[in-house]
Amino acid sequence: MSTSLLLVTLFFLSTTISSSTSPNHFTVKLIHRDSPHSPLYNPQTTATDRLNAAFLRSISRSRRFNHKSQTDLQSGLIGAGGEFFMSITIGTPPTNVRAIADTGSDLTWVQCKPCQQCYKENGPIFDKNKSSTYKNVPCDSRHCNALSTNERGCDESQNVCKYRYSYGDQSFTKGDVATETISVGTASGSPVSFPGTVFGCGYNNGGTFDETGSGIIGLGGGEISLVSQLGSSISKRFSYCLSHKSSTMNGTSVINLGTNSIPSGTSKDSSVLSTPLVDKEPQTYYYLTLEAISVGKTKIPYTGSYGTSSATTKGNIIIDSGTTLTLLDSGFYNGFGAAVEESVTGAKRVSDPQGLLSHCFKSGNAEIGLPEITMHFTGADVKLSPLNAFVKVSEDMVCMSMIPTTEVAIYGNFAQMDFLVGYDLETRRVSFQRMDCSAGLGL
């Protein structure tokens, strides 16, 4: 998923969708990839197996965000990297497709017939020749030019814009850029249709894509993402509420789009915190500024190197619902990790048996005392619960769900669990409000 990016992989439960007037707000349920309701659920794997797989995806994903690797920055998914899945319909008559909803991708793409090469897919593959609303995008159009130069091409003989994405695990997708009617089901069952939506019709796709899904739903910040195209119809606002229980039978996560999707707290409501989005390239990603992290009462400036007096860099961390772990600059992490270790009581520091997590603690029969960790974003001091910052890997062992990286820093979805996280793309702010997301409503 990293090499993919919510990597929300969001799963919209409605599967029968027809034309409808676009509302100003709608809410959709999400299903975690490890939930028994998920088509990817494997009852033979243990909870530890599933955690380790998610951690590996987090580490792999961080490499995709490295600005030095432009071909891997383009978008989407590597392997089976998302955490939630989304169903939409596309075309007229509509074809049901399931894809990863990814805040780290812009162009929405699905597999398309006729295929030159398509990977095996459990569901139906969209056939553009059977849709009355399919229309190719010309090479000189604004939508074609919204793709970077190494993402786009042109069939000059037919004046058809082409796209091409490759990913870090050698997966790839190539096809035509087109417009179609895309419809989304809501939690209430009322369908919403969006005619003329730009998407990629992929007829040459391969690699490690999972046969459960058909492609990517782009929810990033670029011009051709689904969120950007819906624009005023959702008041340029969306939010999600991810439940830590959503990998079990009892929890349901949701995504909200529209006017009422953002927490409505006033300036006097301390439960709603907000921080500015920072405009940086590539515009796909949502950048925040992390100024410091507190471990208990010890506040450590986040300057990329522990103990230095250099100024905080604006836009120094990407918020990503699709990455499980939080990845912090390795120059900062050593001192931060030491502060956490000093604050843990009732346990001794041990190595992660899988070699993935850097700070693990084993208690024997004693109860482990864990410190409160606070993320100090610009204007927003977000206090994390132990579930946000630590993960139980066995009955007597917990590990910190934050690891060092030499790539871009990422604020992952463990840290966001049981917060309503709102994106206001008009005012350019991200908000956080603590709540129980297992109710499945978000708002």
UniProtKB/TrEMBL annotation:
Domain of life: Eukaryota
UniProt key word Secreted: yes
GO molecular function annotations of the record: aspartic-type endopeptidase activity
Range of residues in the leader sequence: 1-19
Domain Peptidase A1 intervals: 84-433
Pfam families the record matches: TAXi_C, TAXi_N
InterPro entries, A to Z: Aspartic_peptidase_A1, Aspartic_peptidase_AS, Pepsin-like_plant, PEPTIDASE_A1, Peptidase_aspartic_dom_sf, Plant_Aspart_Prot_A1, TAXi_C, TAXi_N
Keyword field: Aspartyl protease, Glycoprotein, Hydrolase, Protease, Secreted, Signal
Subcellular location, record wording: Secreted
Alphabetical list of SUPFAM superfamilies matching this protein: Acid proteases
GO biological process, one term: proteolysis
Catalytic residue list: D102, D320
Primary location group: secreted
GO cellular component, one term: extracellular region
Family: Belongs to the peptidase A1 family.
The protein's name in its UniProt record: Peptidase A1 domain-containing protein
Native source organism of the sequence: Brassica campestris
